[in-house]
Amino acid sequence: MKKTKSVLLSAPYLAWMVVFTLVPLGVVAYYALTDPATGVFTLGNLRNLGMYLPVLWNSIAYSLVSAFICLLLGYPVAYYIAHCRQTAQKFLYMLVMLPMCMSFLLRTLAWVGLLQDTGIINTMLAKIGLPRLRLIRTPAAVVLGMVYNYLPYMILPLYATLMKIDRRLIEAAEDLGCTPVQTFCKVVFPLSMPGILSGMTMVFVPAVSTFYISQKLGGTDTVLIGDVIERQFKQGNNPNLGAALSLVLMLLVFVCTGIMNRFGGGEEEVVV
Amino acid sequence: MKRANRIITVLIFIFLYIPMVVLVVASFNTGKDITQFSGFTLRQYQRLFQDRSLLGLLGNSLLVSILASLIATVFGTLSAVGIHNLNPKLRKVAMTLTDIPMTNPDIVTGVSLSLLFVFVGTKMLGQRNSLTFWTLLIAHITFNLPYVILNVMPKLKQMDASLTDAAMDLGCTPLQAFFQVTLHEIMPGVVSGAIMAFTMSLDDFVISYFVTGLDFITLPVEIYSYTKKPIQPKIYAMFTLLFLLIFVLMTAMNLIQLAADKKKVAARGK
């Protein structure tokens, strides 16, 4: 009897989520399909999307590159933490999480200070007699910003799966004559696949939709889809076009996470 | 191999912490330029505590994040109990709804909520200014709820269902059984959900940026506006203090947990 009653507790939640997640997406679709001036039905906004294909491609390329770099950098770190003693593990885990709790805007601004033409790195280079480099407003700076900001999102899920791998499997592989490299390729790496995929998704999604990183660290040739959307709402005042672009971005993320989930066997976990 | 891993790990940690070191150093700088250290001073800290408007913005951020995470924690925990008892089909629907704000990029969540608020506010209610403190609060509750649900649900699954039955057999009303048995069992999930919701809320910029009006601004939204005007060094002082606070809190939580774990091990040893 208690069960049937407590089921009712979920009703307000379902109503809330429908009103504040599903309905807003419907409103986005409504704006995407109406004319900004007259408000009548039109496919004009969708037709204009073709113009933004290069920008969309840019966003995908930058965030994929960033996700792979995060994987390359994050894997050894996660592996190292997972093989530390208990106390050290907890402390290192905290050190990975800590930057995520601090303002990402300010941390990105600090990179501007580091990379500027007259910034900290260039001043140091000049002091030891090396030529100044053009660091900021380059594609590399945008990728650096993404890797820097989202690396913890890669390390944490990787750590969670690596920690769960049964040590006896590794010992067994070694006993059966595997070299350390073979053990890694044949045992550890395949078993850590769920962590890799969820890490890739967790880096890719915020990276593909960012606008702050590209605005602060990028130049005119590194405009991303997030920048264009932000401008439509906050500067360009064409929310209808912005809505159409948001739909595209949502679809892109939906397809990408769908592919990742399929490879990962659909197993999702909350990490942290 | 282990040695190479250690070197990489140290380098990555340096990479992660360099920008934070830059900001902390800048908070003690006599000059305004983040790139040049011209001398040591504590003046920025003094200025920070004299700046009513800046402290007000921090207050705004705290107000929204505390309210939103509290509401989301209570609402989310109760909903999780309800969802847990739903039939599998409806439960799947509920979990899919929960996943939407988690998988959607923040910018899409922000844009869609802002369009909803503007649509309802201006077209249906005829308001001139439809983005307010309340829309901000609703948005924060909405993206906080999934964190609570996803932290509480696994605890409910782990819990032995016969515990509540036993409590009721022993004369508890369902309400008593919930507060004295269920809540006690799922508490770790509730707490971690609440903490996650609070930190997400406090540091959220993207969603807040789209759903807040000009009359109620949070700290991250204000910091974003420094794209146009130069950043005030007091902000670095605030960053340093927040960094210290979070570092101390996290270390304390770790130590408490370690002590609890040790006690458990010791108890088992006896």
What does this protein look like?
The complex is a heterodimer of chains A (272) and B (270). The longest helix of chain A has 30 residues, at 53-82. With 272 residues, chain A is mainly α. Helix content of chain A is 75%, strand content 0%. Chain B is built from eleven helices and no strands. Chain B has helices at 2-27, 43-50, 52-84, 88-103, 106-124, 133-158, 162-169, 174-203, 206-211, 219-224, 234-269. Chain B is globular, with a radius of gyration of 23 Å. The mean pLDDT of chain B is 90. At the A-B interface, helix 1, helix 2, helix 4, helix 5 and helix 6 of A face helix 1, helix 3, helix 4, helix 5 and helix 6 of B.
Helix-strand topology string of chain B: HHHHHHHHHHH
CATH class (first level) name of chain A: Mainly Alpha
According to DSSP, the number of beta strands of chain B is 0
Binned, the helix content of chain B reads over 70%
CATH superfamily of chain A: MetI-like
Q: Mean pLDDT of chain B, as a whole number?
A: 90
- The CATH level-2 architecture of the domain at 53-229 in chain B is identified as Orthogonal Bundle
The helix/strand class of chain A is mainly alpha
Q: Report the CATH C-level class of the domain at 53-229 in chain B.
A: Mainly Alpha
